[in-house]
Amino acid sequence: MKNYFQKWYENLDIPASAKELFDESVDCFRIDAFRSSYLMAFIGMHYIIRNNILSTTNNPDNISQKKWSEICSRLKDEDSYDCEIRNIIRMKDDSRLLNINESFRKEYITLREYRNNCAHGKKSLLVFEFMNVYIVF
Fold it and tell me: What is the extent of the structural domain holding 105?
């Protein structure tokens, strides 16, 4: 039986690579590998954000062509795109690239902390709950 998360992402028009990561997240969740599940879901979401930004044909009005090229270059780099997405989500005011509100920005920062806990094997009894929070997010 498909859970809410699977039903949600299977109906989205997202890159196949993101769907593969979400599938792996679900597989990990089913075998109680909650840290791995959370990481795969988090990375999948980053793939979607990266794809959406890179599919923009013109640089945003509030960002110079030079800065836009630098952002796109970092997003295309497998070693730096994760940090670049974090920086993009943290952008505020006139320099922001994404139309997100402050509440979303704060939630993302919290979810990234959960990601860090999972990725670095920090002791936490709340890993199962992290995944449930992410699914609802």
Answer: 15-136
